[in-house]
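#structure-requests
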Amino acid sequence: MNTGRLATGIAVRSLAAAFVLVSGSLAATATAAAATESCNDNTVLFYDSGVVTASAYEFCFTEGGGEPLVTPLPSNIQERDLVTGDWVTLVTGVGAIHYTCTGTTAHKFRITLTELKKITAPCT
């Protein structure tokens, strides 16, 4: 008996089973997304102990209620340049992102979404 081929066969079947499970959950997610009634972006920006934290998520609620579908959004933490007044991107990421401050001079920060958001509304 060739144990190498047996192990490979088991690994391939396990991988195929995992793919079917993932494919099924992706289909379920796509179905849930198609049934959404409304979506809202939620962005937060705060400072604590030398770290600026920003988070950007989209919450989609379905007609039947239940837990919302939560999607992390791409965003930036930007700092206002004290000399030019321009906004400079410090960190880019998805979901929750962080920037560790240095020095003691006060600076202004903002969060910006890096993806253009569009909606379709039943309006005339």
